[in-house]
Amino acid sequence: MHAFEWFIGLMLGAMLLSALARRIGVPYPTFLALGGVGIAFLPNAPDWTLEPDLALALFVAPVLLDAAFDTSLRDLRDNWLPVTMLVLAAVGVTTAAVAFVAHWLMPGMPWAAAIALGAIVAPPDAAAATAVLRSIKLPYRVLKILEGESLLNDASALLIYRVAVGAALASSLKVNDVVPALAVALAGSLIVGYVFAKVSMLATARITDVPTSIIMQFAGTFTVWIIAEHFALSGILTIVVYAITMARSVPMQTSPRLRVPSYAVWETVVFLLNVMAFVLIGMQLRPILENLETSVRHDYFIIAAAVLATVILTRIIWVMGYNTVLRGTIAYFGFRPRRLSETRPSVKGGVLMSWCGMRGIVTLAAAFALPERFPYRDLILLTAFGVVLGTLVIQGLTLRPLVAWLALDDGDPVGHEVGWARRAAFHAALESFDGNTSAEAELLRLEYRQMLDKAESNPDGLTSSELPADPLRRQAISAARRVLFEMRESGEIGDDAFHLLEEEFDWAELSATEA
Predict the structure, then answer these.
(1) What is the mean pLDDT, run by run of 10 residues, along the chain of 515 residues?
(2) Per-position DSSP letters for 384-453, written without gaps between them
(3) In whole angstroms, what is the distance from residue 169 CA to residue 159 CA?
(4) Residue 186: phi, psi to the nearest 5?
(5) CA-CA distance, 280 to 377, in Å (whole number)?
């Protein structure tokens, strides 16, 4: 019962921190990281543990699938070069720089352990990036590059991590054995992710029950990860391919009655996993700090601060260097965008991108997943948390003022696409009952024509999603709800009838609410 009381208290604390973060406009993982520090110093706090092998599967798989499901293949293709340079080159350079600094400051640390530390802190986090980027008005191209990077760089970093951990624990490790294994892991991950997505869609196509559908989604996610890890594939890459493949077809076969609650559950679970990751790491910090001598603790703090500075500076140098080369290339060969969302790279865009390096749950989970006998595990765990905390606080809290100061504007290409697509959709909607002369069709035709006229009269394609009669619908539904509540209070109807009608009104009100 004591553990359950602590769990409830921590969840309530996390909700308060999240609400405060939303109120002041910062990513909620920033305050969760600060909360994790507080837990490390709470007296009589519980000492919860988690099997290291379970950490990556439990924390990373659902978070990545949630991020990958919303990823646009079109935007990844359009921005393949900058995304690739960040996913491969930037991760590699950061890993090498951190390994060099860590080994230089701690000469006794094996190179394999130093490289593992570099791989752990190298990738910016998808959840942390999305939490802050979606709440800030960023140029579309910058947003898509950062989202693509935060999604895919985990795969490259954890491949390096796996090799480094294996090298640190093995008596010998040959390059001739590693390279073919990595090639097989990459190819196998792409195939397995795609095949499992197709099988999953066939298996769930006939499910209409909401709880069953949601349970199957999570069971499928963990199954894909476990199988990928069992066959020495990349769980990260397998999950990404699985999610992107599902996202291309599932929306057409899923009803709104399943989709709306599913999205709400996934959003809640991702938040809960972020909370638990910071809670568990915070609980691990206290025994680490207590068992270290004062001089050793001081050395560990210096190393953590040096690694944090290395991570931030390496990203700035790499991104601005690439930005300079890219702008020079465009100045010489010209800029030929294929669509409105492809804006010309700028110094301001490079500055913004170089500052978006928040680390999060993947770094924490990878550090926690190190075997207990791994060399310098306590130092790596402490440093990983320091990097996550430092980037979330330093960069997360200053990102919104930086965006305001840079004053970047790309004309809202997503808004334009929404307007164009809305016009095409309403044309198709009108054509679907063309020739139908019933009274119902005439009422619907009048409403859709008004909405289409409103969209077409806007030369930029930007218009509200609200239908002309929606304000009256909301007013009517509100009046109906009041009568329904009064009838239940007076005993004219029972709770079963009340809840059935309440659900009907909920769906009607959602359909009349502007997105």
Answers:
(1) 79 86 77 80 74 78 84 82 88 94 93 93 73 67 82 83 82 58 81 91 84 90 91 86 86 77 88 82 76 82 95 94 86 69 77 88 84 88 90 85 80 73 80 82 80 70 64 84 88 86 81 62
(2) HHHHHHHHHHHHHHHHHHHHHHHT-----HHHHHHHHHHHHHHHHHHHHTTT--SHHHHHHHHHHHHHHH
(3) 16
(4) -65, -50
(5) 15
Determine contact, residues 233/192, Cβ cutoff 8 Å.
Answer: yes
Total length of the chain: 515
Distance in angstroms (rounded) separating the CA atoms of residues 402 and 194:
40
Phi, psi (rounded to 5 degrees) for 367:
-65, -40
Cβ contact 484:505 at 8 Å: yes
DSSP for 121-174 reads HSSPPHHHHHHHHTTS---HHHHHHHHHHHHHHHHHHHHHHHHHHHHHHSS---
Dist CA 10 CA 45 (whole Å): 11
pLDDT of residue 118: 95
Question: Residues 6 or more apart from 10 whose CB is under 8 A from it?
Answer: 39, 275, 279
**N- to C-terminal Cα distance for the chain?**
42
Q: Residue 430 and residue 426: Cα distance in Å, rounded?
A: 6
Under 8 Å between Cβ of 100 and 173: no
Q: Using alpha carbons, list the distances in angstroms from residue 33 to 158, 192, 386.
A: 22, 35, 9
Virtual torsion, Cα 265, 274, 375, 305, nearest 10 deg: 160
CB 318 within 8 A of CB 90: yes
Rg (CA), the chain: 26
